[in-house]
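Example (one chain per record):
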Amino acid sequence: MKYRTAPIIELVLAPLLIALFFSAFIYWEHFDLTSKALNTFSGLIALYALLHAPKRTILISGFWIGLLWCYWIGFSFQYYGLGWATWLVALGFGIVYALYYGTMALTAHPLIRAIILLGLTYIWPMDFNWMQPELIFVESYMGFTKWQFALILFSLASTVWFEGWKKLLPLILLLGAVQTSYPATPLPEVKIKLVSTDISQDFKWQGERLEQTLQENFNAIDDAIVQGYDLVVLPESAFPLYMNEHTAIAEALAKRSLHIAILTGTLHKENNLNYNVSYLFDQGNVTVAKKTILVPFGEYIPLPEFLRGWVNREIFGGGADFVTARAPTDFKVKGVSFRNAVCYEATREELYTPEVRYMIAVSNNGWFKPSIEPTVQNLLIRFYARKNNTIVFHSANGGGSGIVY
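Predicted structure:
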């Protein structure tokens, strides 16, 4: 009986339980059940198991972790007419992260596994950085900087050198990684209205809905003026058009900006190149803030050049052809400096530099409804905001709006 049940535990039950513990913090957050105590416990249990479990358990655990974190990525494919690929994409990410965490199965020694796992925090498959192992402690009693994560891994791995109750001794080192609060940047003296919308991606780009979308946007801006706000922020592609090709709309926004600063997501065409941008209208002046980091497979194809053109043309119909600016755009409202971030950029550390204390992010999460994507995005923004003592003002379509710090 033992011979028969052991493979079931190692290949089915244990991998799934490890993945559930490793992913629990996302789902607690998604369903408004977040508990620092639960997140601390589940995170430590998951890491301990990854460091000490049988080799074949690790590989399968990585597969389930990939699914639980990334099952939603393929949801966007339906808008390219590729709905059939939705779960194939999820399966692909499961395999990718089975290999990612499976590198730990190259050894059975917990300390070497700990070194490998720490090294994995610097590696992003396909240039997609949303798999951050340290993220499991973003809402817990443990810190999530590199040195704190390394100390946690060392403590959990070191139990291998002890027997019985003495296995608890290395866990004392965990106290060195405890962190219950983070430095607080004061809110700026700018009254900011974050507009949250929930427009289905099915309708967002349809021409017959454009008039309604424009009216809703202008109504939101006019309401913010009446309510006495200094700045109103609308989500990514809130104006689903190339703003510089619609002068009447731009002029209407510039006129309103005499009463309130307006930042909105839209598109911009320049020299036959397409940019995903934010437009800032302030006192009749216009600033175009171009995106600097594109979404893998959504806005660019992270493949060798000889494959990139074919995939973009044949699979995405030329939809992933955006280009970037060389540097992020900063702007001032009432003398306060803000950095612009468009969606994915707000989850990349490159945007968080020492001089930045306030960031305005715009997103369109309608691509992935219904899913945990807005939750993962919010946790990642929180992760980088806390590491860099930054406050992020986030306006999103499809969930995720709010002030993040």
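Caption: The first helix runs from residue 2 to 30.
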